[in-house]
Design a protein that fits this description.
Layout lengths: L2 H17 L7 E2 L11 E2 L4 E6 L6 H15 L3 E6 L11 E3 L2 H10 L3
C-alpha cells in the first residue's frame, strides 16, 4: 500500500472511530466503485467524504461529496479535510455547501 493510501486509510479510521461516539454503527465504508456512497457508513442520511492531502481542492472534493450524497440518496453530504498540525478528530475541517448548513441548522431548531 502506498504512503498516500496509508495516510488516507488512517484518517478514515480516526474519523470513523470518532463518529462512532455519536452513531454506534459508524465505520469505514467498503469501496463501491463509480456508485460510491462516501467514506463512512452507518450514519443514516449523512454522507462523509474524507480527504487527507497536502493540496486542498475544495471545488473538486465538494462535487465528489455531492455525487456520493446523491448516490446514497442522503440528506446531507459533509466533506472532512485533514487540518495540518491538528491530530484530534474534532479539530478537522468539516465543509458543507451553504444549503446543507441551512438544512442542518433548521433541523437543529435555529
Amino acid at each position: 500500500m502506498s504512503r498516500s493510501k496509508q495516510k488516507g486509510t488512517a484518517f478514515e479510521r480516526l474519523i470513523a472511530d470518532y463518529l462512532a461516539q455519536y452513531w454506534p454503527y459508524a465505520d469505514r465504508a467498503p469501496l463501491t466503485g463509480n456508485k460510491d456512497r462516501g467514506d463512512i457508513s452507518g450514519t443514516p442520511g449523512i454522507v462523509w467524504e474524507l480527504k487527507n492531502a497536502k493540496t486542498i481542492r475544495l471545488s473538486e472534493w465538494l462535487e465528489e461529496t455531492e455525487t456520493e450524497r446523491s448516490n446514497a440518496d442522503a440528506d446531507v453530504g459533509i466533506l472532512v479535510v485533514k487540518r495540518r498540525g491538528h491530530g484530534r478528530p474534532s479539530e478537522q475541517y468539516a465543509i458543507v455547501p451553504l444549503g446543507d448548513m441551512i438544512h442542518l441548522l433548521r433541523e437543529a431548531g435555529y
